[in-house]
Fold this protein.
Amino acid sequence: MRSLFLLLVVGIAFGNGALSRTRRSSSWGSSLTTARVDSQEMRLDQLAKQLDSLEGSLEGGDLGIPASMNSLSLRLDKIEGNDCGKRQFSCGRHSGQCVFELNVCDNVPDCANGMDEAEETCSNPVPAGRSWNGVAHWDSCLVRSNNKMNVLITGNKRYDYFPSRLWVDAVIIESYTVSGEEQTNTWSISGFYNYASRMVKFNSPKEGTMGIGLTCSDAGSDVAQCDFVRATDQHVCGSVTLTRGA
């Protein structure tokens, strides 16, 4: 395969040289041809070295995907979309492979490139002690002004029999203004993080009466984009962009 590749490059190189010579004056065509051949020989030598390096990586099994590449691929999939179904995980842009979401981060590689078990895919973005802050914007369900919100993660649980989910406990501390007076509430919430979709879903607080939960997706650079979702009909009441605190 390497020989075929090099022959193809040689053919293109000398073909381009021949075409160029027909367009040049005969008085300096010979020197130009010599310079072009020398240049192409140097280029072929560089290509050969690159090919040797690539073959060495393949033969040595060096097929690991850098965490930064995984992260970029996941972000682009989110922005551009992919061909995978609703409950499927994309093994990467142009990979042409999708796996069922419950097979992600289960300690068994299903993607040919190992992306479903990669460190970047299976890292925990919501560990205990991490906090997020933002200002909520309500379109319906509630009417509140200057609704500041702090979400503090208080605990994680991950079960061996269900590793593709991470159970998360948290506390929401919010403040808002009513008739010119500031009100403060504290809510205890629980939910789970989905490694495949990079999304955490919190159920509505047990102490609450509105039945409104919080669904957040990774927006990159320590930012989470969240929606307030009414449990009874999945109506989106508002949103908040949370930035990482601690």
